Task: inverse folding
């Protein structure tokens, strides 16, 4: 019953409100480096966000940040400040801004913008026109960061 | 020619210790300059450190004794190559050059401008291979070329890095500087972000150095072969998800000159050892 499965799958995509609502990478509205509205209109999933933050091919946040909550992982970087307690220092909107495009918050920072798909030079072909994370992954990471309280 | 005897000991690369900041790099009694005041043309760095400084104790140790340094296996291959006839003219390197030791002082002054063009040691070697020997050019970072340039650079070991950056070198140097500070790739970073702003910091499992090239070509435990400067530049660009320039390109040659000048005052260490 392949055709029926395909047809229902297709219908489900059409009906899904999520896809229509994702804010496109270059359309994200920043105010003082912060992004007020969710990029997906959906709540982030903190457990998923923890995985995204840890993944070397995804957030790879540990490359630069120590994070006591990920103690089980070897090799935490020291290029950026430790992530411990970030939820005490930043609001949800600020964290969304920092993860989406930290250059709007920290001028000239080394931290990559995780939700832009244009404006960088000479990308490897396979990354051309792509953002490092998807809108939902950004929301998931933000939800995870909000759990980092001291 | 005398060959380098190398102990083919097993090498254990994995280690977390990198407490070697204060240690001295001395080989057979010869002490190398691994820390020195930065030259005046460097705006944001006051002290230069050799990449050796930032490596784990075990990796450092491999460079302290030529018998332990796996690079010398490759230098021995280059010594064989030195006497090997290649090409239509029936010549080898040794047909024209009496002793490779005569090349002392070359690595410390390259790249340099000749007839308006910036040339690297690789260019100079290939000029001999094609124009004088009548052979096909060697691949820029191929095994033959990496080993031969390492052997030639080794003749300058202990000498002070001293490339010309003024006069006709100036425009190339400016271009290299511009590339050094230009952000590239999906991660949108410049060489300076890691090697100027963050040397000494850990980036995940790596201890960031100043990205000096005074030890190149060098042996890496990671791929168990000789690695060239342009090969390393390529690797760093891919890591930030940028399309690398080609090895031997004008861009990488200019970058090489600029980075060599950022090491002005350090000793040549070729062949260095890295993880």
Result:
């Amino acid at each position: 019953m392949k055709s029926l499965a395909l047809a229902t799958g297709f219908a489900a995509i059409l009906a899904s409100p999520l896809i229509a609502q994702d804010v496109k990478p270059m359309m994200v509205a920043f105010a003082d480096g912060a992004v007020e509205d969710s990029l997906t209109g959906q709540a982030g999933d903190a457990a998923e966000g923890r995985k995204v933050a840890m993944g070397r091919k995804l957030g790879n946040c540990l490359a630069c940040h120590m994070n006591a909550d990920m103690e089980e992982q070897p090799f935490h970087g020291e290029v950026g400040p430790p992530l411990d307690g970030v939820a005490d220092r930043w609001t949800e909107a600020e964290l969304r801004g920092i993860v989406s495009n930290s250059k709007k918050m920290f001028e000239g920072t080394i931290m990559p913008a995780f939700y832009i798909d244009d404006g960088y030079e000479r990308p490897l072909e396979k990354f051309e026109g792509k953002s490092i994370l998807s809108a939902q992954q950004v929301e998931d990471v933000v939800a995870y960061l909000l759990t980092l309280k001291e | 020619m005398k060959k380098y005897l190398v102990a083919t000991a097993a090498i254990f690369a994995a280690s977390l210790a990198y407490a070697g900041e204060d240690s001295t790099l001395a080989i057979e009694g010869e002490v190398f300059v691994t820390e020195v005041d930065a030259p005046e043309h460097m705006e944001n760095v006051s002290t230069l450190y050799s990449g050796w400084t930032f490596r784990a104790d075990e990796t450092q140790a491999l460079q302290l004794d030529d018998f332990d340094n796996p690079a010398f296996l490759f230098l021995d291959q280059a010594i064989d190559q030195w006497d090997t006839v290649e090409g239509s003219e029936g010549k080898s390197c040794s047909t024209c050059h009496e002793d490779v030791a005569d090349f002392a002082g070359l690595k410390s002054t390259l790249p340099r401008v000749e007839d308006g063009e910036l040339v690297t040691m690789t260019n100079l070697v290939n000029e001999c291979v094609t124009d004088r020997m009548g052979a096909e050019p060697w691949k820029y970072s191929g095994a033959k070329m990496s080993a031969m340039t390492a052997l030639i650079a080794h003749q300058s070991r202990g000498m002070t890095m001293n490339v010309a950056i003024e006069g006709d070198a100036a425009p190339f140097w400016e271009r290299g500087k511009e590339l050094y500070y230009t952000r590239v790739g999906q991660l949108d970073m410049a060489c300076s972000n890691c090697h100027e702003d963050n040397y000494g910091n850990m980036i995940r499992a790596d201890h960031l150095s100043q990205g000096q090239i005074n030890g190149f070509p060098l042996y890496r435990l990671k791929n168990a072969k000789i690695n060239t400067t342009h090969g390393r530049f390529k690797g760093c660009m891919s890591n930030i998800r940028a399309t690398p320039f080609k090895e031997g390109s004008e861009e990488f040659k200019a970058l090489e000159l600029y980075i060599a000048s950022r090491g002005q005052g350090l000793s040549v260490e070729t062949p260095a050892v890295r993880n």
Notes: The mean pLDDT of chain A is 90.
